[in-house]
């Protein structure tokens, strides 16, 4: 008997059967562009071995002009077909199924060659697209059908035609981007002609016994987006045009509403997909912020969809489905929806991987193999660096003793999980707890390790983390001055008017914590939708509330300061920084750069601006919170070295600057993989 009967039930498509209701949604990892085909194959085969029902590749360009960027991967030659065969053969050998996504980026292409229904630049690309003429449109259709035909020749089990997220086909559907007056624009019938023509030609090219998924934007979240009537009309036409499955797209990439970030409630948009259920007879997939089998099961049980798409959770854990099916759901490494190692990498031109699982997309390079000789290893510090080192070493057969001064594991993760919008960190700490137990790591919690404790170990790993950096501001020792640790960990009382000094990741976290108060919109879907201005798409075109966001009033008046003369928050995550900035703006946080801190007293913070210390003023505050970065805590490492030990020093204890859980986990895992 399983806890997830609906999720694990097969799905019969007539000509083929999927072994369960789990789709690994498309992710652009950048792997295909490496042209290291054994590596690409290893990535997908690992997920196939983990029993996912069907996978979709990252978007493959149908032609040069449709590629997301110049040089984007696609099936352009016989050699490309042969290369992709390496991948599909590996997936099939592992018992899996894989579909290739055909992604035409239209005006989202980061290329001067980009094309679109109308010559309207998107807010997220510097290039004005060329408006296609009739021959140009025919070429795009034909290239997409050819891409599907080649996908079949390369051994794929299907294709996904990307029709959502504001890409090319989606651009034809709405007047926001389609101003044409010919047969491809104007009425809705005309605007949906292109996606339907593409689908018909794709189906014609691949035959009947091939999976064709159409990814349909169910809620555009942009002005002049589709109405829900239009969505249903399109879905029915998509079915008639030959699609085997409809997948859900949520929001255009240019939408100013978060759709997958960690502050988005779990399964936040499945209610939108549910509106389509019963309106078409082919299976419907729902998507976005589903990261646990229990959530996925509940979504299916509620009748919101026939199948569930999860993408990033398969970076965090290739064995998601196999673990869920064998009663080991607690062992699934959770995707915390941080984007730090996946989407932020993609948008920085780097290969995607995962903060929680540095092996993702590095399956052929980062090997965790049984140790040739079991050693006794001491790890000091149970933050992300120490925890990953301990788990990896134990998984390899070493005997690991983990020392932690605190009475609980987690280190800085325990502060992150207190921040509204970062609740997913709780699951990460719980996962570490489970895995320490299951891998047999001996835990010495509430035990500050000394040099004496560490004698006799074959290897010593020091992961003692960081301490807050104290700035040098007159008055910083005052009774009204706290550090972020006092606030987030020790829950010190904080007044109604607050000045935060330091606007890095932690300054932003503390600001969000202080303005939200007891409110957790991430755990209250209706509140979250209301705050961000998401409306029922049956009532409002595109699902946008015409009145915009409706933030609940802030719990405190917060001012966030930094010395750098740039916009605070500019260096936060590439794909999530805007959400943090927008959240604080909605809550009336005054964010200022270029500040000199003259002094702190009981009235607040006295500041001035610029090199000349101009515009001297007092920012009144009941409480001042210092979030001014960190320094390595390496006293133990230094004392061990002084008596001749050679400890491995990792994480913040090694380098405090720009430390985050991604670097800590990566470093801990890689070190222990080689011991
Ligand atoms: P941080 O990002 O280095 O920010 C430190 C802040 O303190 C900066 O605003 C800096 O700005 C200011 N500062 C530094 N030295 C100062 C001094 N002597 N006097 C006054 N102000 C000073 O460090 P953090 O915020 O503590 O974050 C630590 C790490 O955790 C970062 O790497 C961050 O990426 C990571 N983190 C990430 C997230 C996330 O959402 N991804 C969240 C939390 C933490 P000025 O020098 O301009 O004043
Ligand atoms: Fe999920 Fe973060 Fe890993 Fe991306 S990096 S897969 S968002 S945990």
Summarize the structure.
With 675 residues, this protein is an alpha/beta fold.
Topology, pairings included?
Elements: E1 11-12, E2 17-18, E3 22-24, H1 31-34, H2 37-49, E4 54-60, H3 78-93, E5 98-102, E6 115-116, E7 130-131, H4 134-153, E8 158-163, H5 168-173, H6 188-191, H7 193-206, E9 211-219, H8 228-240, E10 245-250, H9 270-274, E11 284-286, H10 293-301, E12 307-310, H11 313-316, H12 320-325, H13 343-346, E13 376-380, H14 384-395, E14 399-404, H15 413-416, H16 424-438, E15 442-445, E16 459-462, E17 466-468, E18 481-483, H17 484-488, E19 497-501, H18 505-516, H19 525-532, E20 557-561, H20 577-586, E21 590-592, E22 595-601, E23 604-609, E24 614-620, E25 623-626, E26 630-632, H21 635-642, E27 648-649, H22 661-673
Parallel strand pairs: 3-4, 3-12, 4-5, 5-8, 6-7, 8-9, 9-10, 10-11, 11-12, 13-14, 13-16, 14-15, 16-27, 18-25, 19-20, 19-25, 20-21
Antiparallel strand pairs: 1-2, 17-26, 22-23, 23-24
Bound molecules: NADP nicotinamide-adenine-dinucleotide phosphate and iron/sulfur cluster.
Mean pLDDT: 97
Strand order of the largest sheet: 3-4-5-8-9-10-11-12
Structural class by SSE content: alpha/beta
Measured by DSSP, the beta-strand proportion falls in 15-25%
Assigned CATH superfamily of the largest domain: Aldolase class I
Main sheet summary: 8 strands, parallel, barrel
Task: Describe the global form.
Answer: globular
Unreliable sequence segments: none
Give me the Rg, rounded: 26 Å
Number of helices, where a helix is a run of at least 4 consecutive DSSP H or I residues: 22
Query: In CATH terms, what is the fold-level topology of the largest domain?
Result: TIM Barrel
CATH class of the largest domain: Alpha Beta
Bound molecules: NADP nicotinamide-adenine-dinucleotide phosphate, iron/sulfur cluster
In the CATH hierarchy, the architecture of the largest domain is Alpha-Beta Barrel
Relative helix content: 25-40%
Please give the domain count.
3
Distance between the termini: 40 Å
- Quantity of strands, as a count: 27
């Amino acid at each position: 008997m399983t806890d997830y009967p609906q999720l694990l039930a097969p799905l019969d498509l007539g000509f083929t059967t999927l072994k369960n209701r789990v789709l690994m949604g498309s992710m652009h990892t950048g792997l295909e562009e490496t042209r290291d085909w054994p590596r690409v194959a290893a990535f997908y085969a690992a997920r196939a071995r983990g029993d996912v029902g069907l996978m979709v590749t990252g978007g493959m360009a149908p032609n040069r002009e449709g590629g997301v960027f110049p040089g984007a991967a696609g099936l352009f030659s016989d050699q490309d077909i042969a290369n992709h065969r390496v991948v599909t053969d590996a997936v099939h050998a592992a018992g899996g199924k894989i579909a290739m996504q055909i992604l035409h980026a239209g005006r989202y292409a980061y290329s001067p060659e980009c094309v679109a229904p109308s010559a309207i630049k998107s807010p997220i690309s510097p290039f004005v697209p060329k408006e296609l003429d009739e021959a140009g449109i025919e070429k795009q259709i034909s290239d997409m059908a050819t891409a599907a035909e080649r996908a079949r020749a390369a051994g794929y089990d299907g294709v996904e035609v990307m029709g959502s997220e504001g890409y090319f086909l989606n651009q034809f559907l709405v007047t926001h981007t389609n101003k044409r007056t010919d047969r491809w624009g104007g009425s809705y019938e005309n605007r949906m002609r292109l996606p339907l023509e593409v689908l018909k030609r794709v189906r014609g090219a691949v035959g009947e016994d091939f999976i064709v998924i159409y990814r349909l934007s169910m809620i555009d979240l942009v002005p002049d987006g589709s109405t829900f009537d239009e969505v249903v009309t399109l879905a029915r036409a998509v079915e008639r045009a030959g699609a085997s499955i409809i997948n859900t797209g949520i929001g255009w990439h240019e939408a100013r509403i978060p759709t997958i970030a960690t502050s988005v409630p779990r399964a936040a948009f499945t209610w939108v997909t549910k509106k389509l259920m019963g309106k078409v007879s082919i299976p419907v997939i729902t998507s976005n912020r589903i990261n646990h089998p229990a959530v996925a099961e509940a979504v299916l049980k509620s009748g919101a969809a026939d199948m569930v798409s999860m993408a990033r959770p398969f970076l965090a854990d290739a064995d998601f489905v196999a673990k869920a099916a064998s009663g080991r759901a607690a062992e699934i490494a959770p995707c915390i929806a941080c984007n730090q190692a996946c989407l932020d990498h993609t948008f920085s031109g780097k290969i995607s991987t995962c903060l929680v699982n540095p092996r993702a997309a590095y399956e052929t390079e980062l090997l965790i193999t049984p140790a040739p000789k079991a050693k006794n290893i001491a790890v000091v510090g149970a933050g992300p660096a120490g925890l990953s080192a301990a788990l990896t070493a134990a998984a390899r057969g070493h005997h690991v003793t983990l020392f932690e001064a605190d009475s609980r594991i987690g280190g800085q993760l325990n502060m992150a999980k207190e921040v509204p919008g970062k609740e997913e960190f709780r699951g990460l700490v719980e996962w570490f707890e489970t895995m320490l137990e299951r891998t047999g790591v001996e835990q010495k919690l509430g035990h500050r390790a000394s040099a004496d404790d560490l004698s006799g170990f074959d290897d010593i790993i020091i992961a003692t983390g960081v301490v807050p950096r104290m700035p040098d501001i007159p008055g910083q020792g005052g009774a009204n001055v706290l550090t972020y640790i006092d606030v987030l960990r020790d829950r010190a009382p904080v007044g109604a008017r607050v000045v935060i000094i330091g606007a890095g990741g932690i300054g932003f976290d503390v600001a969000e914590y202080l303005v939200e108060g007891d409110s957790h919109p991430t755990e209250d879907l209706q509140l979250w939708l209301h705050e961000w201005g998401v409306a029922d798409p049956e009532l409002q075109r595109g699902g946008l509330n015409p009145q915009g966001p409706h933030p609940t009033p802030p719990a405190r008046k917060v001012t966030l300061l930094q010395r750098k003369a740039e916009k605070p928050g500019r260096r936060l995550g590439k794909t999530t920084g805007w959400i943090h900035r927008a959240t604080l703006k909605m809550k009336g946080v005054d964010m200022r750069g270029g500040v000199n801190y003259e002094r702190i007293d009981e009235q607040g913070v006295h500041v001035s601006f610029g090199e000349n210390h101009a515009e001297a003023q007092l920012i009144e505050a009941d409480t001042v919170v210092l979030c001014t970065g960190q320094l390595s805590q390496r006293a133990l490492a230094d004392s061990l070295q002084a008596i001749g030990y050679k400890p491995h020093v990792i994480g913040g204890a090694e380098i405090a600057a720009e430390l985050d859980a991604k670097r800590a986990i990566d470093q801990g895992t890689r070190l222990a993989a080689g011991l």
